[in-house]
Amino acid sequence: MYSGLLSEFHAEYQEDVLTGTHLDPSLKEVNYNPTYETMFAPEFGPVNPFKTQQMAAPRNMLSGYAEPAHVNDFMFEQQRRTFSTFGYALDPSVDNSQASSSSYIGAVEEAEKNKGITVFESGAKKGEKRRKVKGGDASEIDGFLGPWAKYMDEKDVAKPSEEEQKELDEITAKRQKKGKNEEEAPAEEKTILHVKDAYDYQGRSYLHIPQDVGLNLRSADIPDKCYLPKKQIHVWTGHTKGVSAIRLFPVSGHLLLSCSMDCKIKLWEVYGERRCIRTFIGHSKAVRDICYNNTGTQFLSAAYDRFLKLWDTETGKCISKFSNRKVPYCVKFNPDEDKQSLFVAGMSDKKIVQWDIRSGEVVQEYDRHLGAVNTITFVDENRRFVSTSDDKSLRVWEWDIPVDFKYIAEPSMHSMPAVTLSPNGKWLACQSMDNQILIFGAQNRFRLNKKKIFKGHMVAGYACQVDFSPDMSYVVSGDADGKLNIWDWKTTKLYHRIKAHDKVCISALWHPHETSKVVTCGWDGQIKLWD
Predict the structure, then answer these.
(1) Contact present, 38 and 20 (Cβ < 8 Å)
(2) Which residue from 59, 168, 232, 478 puts its CA 20 to 30 A from 437's CA?
């Protein structure tokens, strides 16, 4: 009895639960005739209370329920492309059997103008092709035009219409106005003599090399052994802004020329009372570089007012001025005795320009660098010169030949804004912007000497001038912290470091006749002598 009941209950239970296969409530089409029960069967199980409304809704894709659209792929693509090209498409929600303006979406006016063409239909027929002038016969070489023939209706001269002309006139007038302010006339040159008499009792000027300093300054021989400078023995003050370059008088080194950002150039005594002898005033912006000729009777100055000026060292007169409306970054006389009337200047427009002093004309342009030219250094008995530039390369030129015969650029190289030739003429010391001094051979191969790399100082961003002791035993350089660094040439060890200036120490020169005298200058406006 009990078992019978149980089996009956089982049957009932099964009947209740498994009423055939139920259809998914989201289905819209069924391929057979289902019974009423199967179509409207409940979903099994309790409702999930944590489902959001979005998640609980019937979905057949991530973002919800997409009805299958009865558009074939080509029609869809056609409308999509038409919309992205012309900005209009047929409105998919309207019955499009009769096209009217309301059946477009997007740029409706465009659609009406184009009569609703799609991208796959060609528009109105293009006009006739432009005719070309008949090209003659290919066998006549001179008269044959071929594919280069002009169009029949081609205009040769493009003349601006009246309105355009008006606009152009305004622009040019503005430009001229702008240019005028910048290009003021070069500043008036004047000079101040700071010593009582320019000539001594024998009628000799201050250019005369003194013979009472305990050294023969006239000789060409160098001291046998040099020593490290230890202490400061003099400060020349007078510049009101940073000093940008210093140069010692050729051969003797008894005078010191300095140029500064206060637009002035000053001449100082190195021996005796160490006075300021003369000030040369004539630039309207900071002076960037100076260079003596071989005898020291004249020197050139290059400044940011875009002028290069030639001065007489003795009288202070400005002999001539040169400009090509670009900023000169460096200037050098040709050191050859028979070419003393020629000089080269590295410009901000990537060129090296060569002038003749006698005529004032540009006689040569070396235009191969890809960045502003920073330095020019004569090597190999002045037959060649080496230039460095912001393009991080080093180029070697034969004098008067405007194509570089050697180009040195490594991916690892940095810009080298200061270069010095060693006293024996064999090496070039280049201050590299990755805080090291690189040594290149200066004789023929211009190879980087990998054994001689001087580091340990901080110069990145500043063109600190390097120098050698006359006997080639030391290398000196300033740095960005205002320190004077001295390395041993043989071992490349950093021997000595002196705090020389408050700001950048931009240049250090070792006196060519002294065993341990070094002149430094800095952006604090001071020039110091160390011994």
Answers:
(1) yes
(2) 232
